[in-house]
C-alpha cells in the first residue's frame, strides 16, 4: 500500500508538534498537558476507510485491547507499531490518561554525543524517519468503569509500506545492523519460501474441502461452509449431525474457544463447546479463520447460527479478544457475552506470582472468595479491600480485571444461564483435555478432521453411558426428604449430585414467613441477612434472590427449604429442566404440593421412602437393577388395573364411577 496524503482535522495542538515532542521522550510535557482526552483529531484518507481501521470514538476496555486492534490494522496495511506513553495532566502518580501508539518509523534518533578524549560511540542505522502515523486514545472514567476512547488517528506515512516478504527483509537487516542487500539471502529467497508455504497451504485446503464434500455425500445432515479469496481458503466451518442434535438441547450455554491454531494451515481455530446432561463437554462445531478480525469472527458466528437453524445461545463464553467482543455484539445482540473465568485464571501465575511472591496463594484464595460472592456491592467493596491489602493499586492486570468485571465476576452474571460453566476449576480441566484431543492430530489436515469425528462419536455415546452408570452406582442418599428419591430417578447423576448438595445444605437453613407468599431464608447460625424466596401456590412457581436456578438450572437450598416446609413430596416438573434429565422427555405430572390431611399424606410419604430405598439398593449392581425393573413393571401393571382414586380426604376414599 503506497503512502498517501492526508487532510488532517485537528482540535488542539498541531499533530507534528505533539508527536515530535513525544518522540523526544516527554512523559508529561507542558504542551501535552494542554490537551484533553476528550479532544479529537481525524485523518481523512482512503487508506483508513476499511472496516478494520480505527475510528474516532471507538472504545476499548483497556489500552492493551486498543494496541492489539491497531497492531492488526498495521499488519494489514504493511507497517508495524510501537507503544509510546504520555502522562495525563493530573500529574505523575495519578494514572495514565492518554496513550500514543505510533508507526515504528516515527520520530528521529539523534546522533550520540561524545566528549574530547572519550571513546566515540557507534551510531547504528535507524529505521526512524519522522513518520506521523499514530493512534491516540484517552481514558474516560466518567460513566462507571474506566474506558479508553480513540481521540486521534492518522494513517499518513512518509515512507513506503511494504509487502510481507520485503517487510521480513527490512526487519532482519535492521536486527543484524547490516546494509540493505548484505544478508546471505535475497528478497526472492524469502518470496520463494513464502510461496512454498502457500502451495502447501493450498494442498491442505484442497484436502479439507474434499473431505467435507465426502462427509456431506455420506451424511446430508453434515454441515459446512467456506469462503475463498484469490483462490486461497479464508474461512471454513463445519458441524456434524449429532452435534446439531446435541445443540438443540444443550446449546443454551456455549463456549467459543479461539485460543488455538491449526499448524497445518496456519489458521486460527475456533471450537464451539457445550456441556451435556452428564456434565461432559460436547462438540457443536469448529471454524478455521485466516485472520483474527471482526469480519472473520462475525462470519464464523453467522455460519454457526445457520448450522443451528438460527437458534442463538442464551450465553456465549469467550476469551478476552477485542475483535471477538465486537463480533458477538453485532451477530448475537440478544445473547449474554461472558468471559471464560478459567481462561482468565490460567494467566494468574504469570501475572501475579512474581508480584506477590509468597502471598500469591493467599491472594488467589481471596480472589475466588470474591468471585463467589452473592451481590455486586459486596464484590466491589471486597475488591477494594483486596487491592489495599495486597498493594495492587498500580497493577495493570488488576485494573483490567476490575474494568471488565461485569463480563466474568459471578455476582454480575447471576441470572444469566451458564449451565454451571462458570465454576472454578471444575470444568477447566475436562474442557482443556477435550480440546487437546483435537490438537493432538495436526500434522495433516485429514488427520485433524478424522480425529474430531472420532472424539465427537466417543463423547456423545459410549463414554457418556459408561460414566453415567458408574456414577449411578455411587449415589448415596443423605436426607429423609422425599424429593431426594424423586430427583434421583429423574435427573442424571451429574445433575442430581448438584441438587443433592443443595438438599443437604437446606436442612441447615431456617425460613420466616413474611407477608403474602414471601419468605426470608437464612442459615440457622445467622441472625441477619438471608435470601428472599417467593412462592406462587396456584402455578407452583418458586423463585429466590440468589438466582441459582436461573444461572444453572438447579434449584437452590433456599427454595428447596421452602418447598420442604410446604410439604412438597416431589420437585415441581418445571424445576427439573429437560437438559438435566436422564432422558430428554418430561415424566408424567409430578405429585406435589399435597396438603397434609393426616393419613393420606403419611401413606404417600411412606411409599415415597420405600421408592427411594428401592432406587438406592437397585443402583448398586446391574443384577439388582434388572430385578427391580422387572418386579416394578409387574407391580405397576397390577396397580393400573385398580380403580382410580379421584379424592383423598383423611381416611375416606371416593372411587371413580
TrEMBL record:
Taxonomic lineage of the native organism: Eukaryota, Viridiplantae, Streptophyta, Embryophyta, Tracheophyta
Superkingdom of origin organism: Eukaryota
Record key words, sorted: Metal-binding, Nucleus, Zinc, Zinc-finger
Protein name as annotated: Protein FAR1-RELATED SEQUENCE
Stored PROSITE patterns: ZF_SWIM
Entries under InterPro entries matching the protein: FAR1_DNA_bnd_dom, FHY3/FAR1, HTH_FAR1-11-like, MULE_transposase_dom, Znf_PMZ, Znf_SWIM
Segments for region (Disordered): 15-48
Residue stretches making up the SWIM-type domain: 531-567
Family: Belongs to the FHY3/FAR1 family.
Species: Brachypodium distachyon (Purple false brome)
Single GO cellular component term: nucleus
GO molecular function terms listed in the Swiss-Prot or TrEMBL record: zinc ion binding
Physiological role: Putative transcription activator involved in regulating light control of development.
The keyword Zinc belongs to this UniProt entry's keyword annotation: yes
Compartments where found: Nucleus
Gene Ontology biological process terms from the UniProt entry: regulation of DNA-templated transcription
Main location: nucleus
